[in-house]
Amino acid sequence: MSRKNSPRTNLVAAGRMKSDQPHVVPVPPERASTVLFPTYDQFTAKTRPFFYGRFGTSTHRAFEQAVMGLENAEHILLAPSGLAAVNFALLSFALPGSHILVTDSAYDPVRYFCDGYLARRGVEITYYDPRLGGHIEKLCRENTAAILAESPGSLTFEVQDIPAMANIARARNIPLLVDNSWGSGLLYRPLDLGADISIIAATKYIAGHADVLIGTIATNDAQIAQKINTNMRLIGNNVSADDVYLAHRGLRSLAARLDVHGANGLKLAKWLERRPEISCVIHPALPSHPDHALWQRDFSGTCGLFGAIFKTEKVEKIRAFFDALAHFGMGYSWGGFESLAIPVWPQKYRTAVPWEEAGQAVRFHAGLEDVEDLIADLEAAFAAMAEM
Ligand SMILES: Cc1ncc(COP(=O)(O)O)c(C=O)c1O
Description:
alpha/beta, Aspartate Aminotransferase, domain 2, Aspartate Aminotransferase, domain 1, 2 domains, four-stranded antiparallel β-sheet, 12 helices, binds pyridoxal-5'-phosphate
C-alpha cells in the first residue's frame, strides 16, 4: 500500500519545478511586465498560464500550487498583504444593499475597512459574538452576503465553531470566510471543516522572516474563485515576484519553525500562568482556555501567538515592563523568527461582546530564541516592574 505523504513533507518540494535536466532547487523570482508569445495562436489561445506581469509569472503559479497543497484547496489567489486578501474577498460579496456578519474578534483593520469603506457604500455590518457557533443563524438575513470568521481571534483568541457555522451558512447559501493566519494551513484547515474560503496573512508564519507582506485566498469553489479573481483584476491587484519568492522560500521551513514557535509559546504561557503579576493567560492550547476543547477537536497544533492580562493597569508599571525587555521586541505583526510583546486594548474595538477584563492586555509572540532566555527576559522585566 502506498503511504500518503504528510503535509509537512509536501511543503519541502511543493510547487517545485520538475525536469529531467539539471535544475535549481528554488523557484526563482521571475519578474516581468511583458510576456512574449512566439506565435499568433499562442497569443490568442483561450488558456494561457500567464500573459501579463500583473497577473503573475511562473513564480506566482508555483507558490499558488504549494499553498493549494497546504490549504487542501483547488484555487488560490494572491494578494499584496493579508489585509488586502481579507478585504478583496469581502468586497467580492458585500455589494450595496447587502448585509455581512463579521466576528467581533476580527483583526481591527478589517473592522476599519468594513466601517470606513463598505458601510459608506451601502453595506450593513453586524459584528457577532465569535462564540455563537450554530446560533449565528439568528443573525442571518435574506440579504446576508458573507460571514467572516477569524479563528482564533488574533487579539483575544476565541476559537470559533467553524463546522457548526458552516452548516448554517451552507443551508442558507452564504459564503463562510475564515481568517486562518494563526493556523497557517499546517495547524488548521478551515476548508476541510466546511468553510468556503480560507484566508492566510502569509506575511506571518508562511513567509516567517518579518520581511514580506503577502496574503493568500483559498477555496474549492470555482465560482467563488472566479468572482474574487475578477474583482482583483479589475482593481489592478499585483503581487511582486520577489515577495512571492520570499514567501515560497519561507514555506519550506514552516513546519520546523511552527514546532519551535508553538513549543516556546506554550512553555511561556504555562510559566506566565504561575506569575503573580498575571491574572489570566489566553492561549487556546491551555486547558484553562474556554475554547480548549474546540481547539483540540479542530486544530493539529499551536503557533507562538497568545495573550495575557496583567493585574495592573498602571502605565508606569507597564512601561517599566516593556522597556526592560531585551529579547522581546515591541512591534506589530507576528510569525517572524523573533519574539514580540505589545500592549493591546481590545476594549477599543469590541462592540458585540464588550471586553470587560480589568488590567492591561498584552499580546506575546514566541520566537525561535532559546525559551530559557525568553523566560529570563520576562523575569527581569517583571523585576523592573516591581521596582516602580
Ligand atoms: C489575523 C490577521 N489577519 C490579517 C492580518 C493582516 O496581514 P498583513 O499584515 O499582511 O496585512 C493580520 C496582521 O497582523 C492578522 O493578525
